[in-house]
Amino acid sequence: xxxxxMAYINGKIVPESQATVSIRDRGFLQGxxxxxxxxTFGGKIFRLDEHxxxxxxxxxxxxxxxxxxxxxxxxxTMEVLNANLPLLGEKDDFWVSQRVTRGVNVDGVxxxxxxxxxxxxxxxxxxxxxxxxxxxxxxSVRRTPPEAHxxxxxVHNYVNLIxxxxxxxxxxxxxxxxxxxxxxxxxxxxxxxIFVVKDGTLITPREQMILSxxxxxxxxxxxxxxxITVQETDIDLxxxxxxxxxxxxxxxxxxxxxxxxxGSPVGDGGVPGPMTDRLTRAYSGLxxxxxxxxxLSRLDD
Length: 301
Ligand code: PLP
Prior knowledge:
alpha+beta
């Protein structure tokens, strides 16, 4: 059995250590690249079509032609995943990503670099968030506004979110950043969307200022199925400090409870709150895995 993960690069599936990009690649030089990431649950891929729809929208926004139609990208993604599944540990799951850079300029023409790869999810490193909740800290750095480049496209350039993370982690190594938009409303964090619960209503920022997370959409769908009122609207710090509950959504976290905003406990401070718990259970039902247990079981590893 192969001991190294396999990755697709420009037409071939090769051992990951051989999947290398040129020092002249625009993705490396300037962050001029697009990606998307789904995950597996028990080795089964989650909502690949939706992720690829978003991926091709990000490519269109960036005016990069991957030279591969969406249906073929889906087939290649499954080939890469299947090549890696024998390496998946019993309690593990993979992030599964497609990446396309503007590539290398050859005789005046950019030849895109296409990569598909799998990486193990960081269950152990993030497990404590499911026991204690996430202490969210709002950094001084604001989320990239649509006037600069649209946060709705999932591009490789994460410097804005990295600066926010550095600022937050310097204050609290466990802290999780949620950035404000330029109007002072909650936007999102690195790889994560934010929700608050107020008087029984679930509230999340509208799509114009954020990446429209697939797990955000799942949380909204599940809430609607459960008869919970959902509002997509501005949330300011007053709303955050007075929320009854809060959680983040992401491909890896699914739904993860927030314990505090800038040190101010959310609700009565207990996590998860009742609505967060209901939605998390519904999420677990949808993916046929107890998503909280998958994290908590790794606490003592
Ligand atoms: N916001 C940003 C900036 C992200 O990069 C991501 C995920 O990668 C998300 C939100 C959450 O999106 P998803 O639920 O599709 O993982």
